[in-house]
Amino acid sequence: MQEEEKLDPQTRRVVIALVFGSSLPLLDISIVNVAIHSIGEAFNAPIVLAQWVITGYGLASTMAIPLSGWATRRFGAKNLWITALAVFTIASILCAVSTHIDMLIAFRILQGFAAGFSVAVMQTLIVTNAGKDQATRAITAIGLPAVIAPAIAPLLGGLLVDAIGWRAIFLINVPIGIAAIALATHYLERTPADTAAQLDRTGYLLLAPGLLAVVYGFTTIGHMNSWTSIIVLAAGAGLIGYFVLHALRAPSPLIDVRLFAHPSFASAWATLAIASTVFYGGLFLIPLHYQGNYAYTALHAGLLLALQSVGAYFSRSASKKFIARWGTRKTVYMCIAATIIGTLPFAFPIGQATCWLILQGCGLFVRGGGIGALTVLTMSATYHGLTKDEVVHASAAGRIATQLGSALGVSVCTVLMTLTHGVGWSTFAYFTVFTTLMAATATRLPRGTVVRK
Questions:
Q1: pLDDT per position as a tens digit, 37-89
Q2: C-alpha to C-alpha distance for 336 and 369, rounded to whole angstroms
Q3: pLDDT tens for residues 365-378?
Q4: Cα(215)–Cα(186) distance, integer angstroms
Q5: How confident is the model over 152-164, as pLDDT tens digits?
Q6: C-beta of residue 384 within 8 angstroms of C-beta of residue 268
């Protein structure tokens, strides 16, 4: 590395502070999945109820993202970051001491809301604390946990669940959270607060409950009166539709829906949302498959799940070469094909034969490679052809697609489990069919590399 490419001492300290804080939600997204089976057994709760420990977290994170831009301006990036970390840490303690599944779900919602703010404000902190000369290197360094965390989280979660119990997966956040708060207080620069910052309250009061109603209505299909689920779904769709009308008229909308008039953006956003659903759905479904059908321990399930992250690491490293040779659209279709091929070994009625389990392990590696690169490529493609002013709204919309996918992924798998009466080969067969939807949404992605105006 050349001298001019190295981070200066102050920026290095900023990166360390932000890495501690960013690792909390990154670990938490994956670590709970291997514990959901144990949590359901501990509270004698069916999967359709226990899954809200994950779905509620994802939805709460989604609800926080549209507020993050206003909150950053209103309270300052450093204040918001520290507050979010403190709330996340306290919520982790409350999750660990929960005595009922409803309590755990409520505290997970609080935890997810805090995580949504911390993820959204991090890039602002990088730019304001690192400066133009160091920002790119700092972003690269802070991006390292995003690659490492998904690989170690299932292993760490499995180890903690088997050795101590499910409560340990939340207590592990406490020392990390305290360290992150201390480092942020000492090393991050305070940013000014704008007390005159305006929030699109009407837009938020339409979008937030609309998304919640859609996910809740979809999740409860098959478990509640069908008409109740349909009414909730219709109400959510109506609120989102009204939000679109409001956003088209508002001078400063929560999300600029005019972005969807760009074919490449609409295609990339839809593909990103489905890819995130497929990714997080797999993190939920695969551990249940091994723990429920093969009586694997949480650690063994975590070891197998980590194969996906290893595949994602290698594919993300190689994706730039593929784009340079074949362009964005062809590379995305290659990734979709890899994701489907990697899921197929689970979609056949084969018993616990050693050779078939090895094939499933190879499938997880291939699946991780496909879906890992796919999320990165489609996130990048949302910025294709956009102006500098549009990029801000595109960034928020992209984060919403990712977080919404984390909630919908569990919901989709829960519905499939209801249809197939458990987690079996037919569940994965339907899941594979759902994955193929990306082939339709990706048709308008840019053929070449992503270009910004």
A1: 899 999 999 888 888 999 899 889 888 888 887 888 888 889 999 999 999 99
A2: 10
A3: 999 999 988 988 89
A4: 40
A5: 888 888 889 999 9
A6: yes
Of 446, 436, 429, 403, nearest in space to 64 by CA: 403
Q: How many helices (DSSP H) and strands (DSSP E) are in the chain?
A: 19, 0
Pairwise CA distance, residues 379 & 394, whole Å: 9
Q: Measured between alpha carbons, how far is 404 from 275 in angstroms, rounded to an integer? A: 11
How many degrees, rounded to 5, is the angle at CA 279 between CA 36 and CA 159? 40
Length of the chain: 453
- Ramachandran assignment for 386, one of left (phi > 0), alpha (psi -120 to 50 degrees), beta (any other): beta
Q: Please check whether residue 90 is in contact with residue 32, taking contact to mean a CB–CB distance below 8 angstroms.
A: no
CB 27 within 8 A of CB 156: yes
Contact 267, 125 (CB under 8 A): no
Please state, in angstroms and rounded to a whole number, the distance separating the CA atoms of residues 166 and 66.
32
Residue 120 identity (one-letter amino acid): A
Cα gap 49→98, rounded to integer Å: 15
Question: Is 181 a residue whose pLDDT tops 90?
Answer: yes
**Which pLDDT band, with edges at 50, 70 and 90, does 2 fall under?**
very low
- Nearest one of 147, 196, 146, 154 to 35, comparing CA atoms: 154
Distance in angstroms (rounded) separating the CA atoms of residues 279 and 46: 23
The more confidently predicted of residues 144 and 360 is: 360
> Domains, the chain, ranges and CATH?
1-200 (1.20.1250.20), 255-453 (1.20.1250.20)
pLDDT over 70 for what percent of the chain?
A: 91
Comparing CA positions, the residue from 371, 358, 246 lying closest to residue 308 is 371
Six-digit token pair at 153? 């989280």
Q: Is the pLDDT of residue 90 over 80?
A: yes
pLDDT over 50 at 3, yes or no = no
CA nearest 226: which of 234, 422, 407, 428?
234
Q: Are 332 and 396 in contact (CB under 8 A)?
A: no
d(CA 43, CA 418): 20
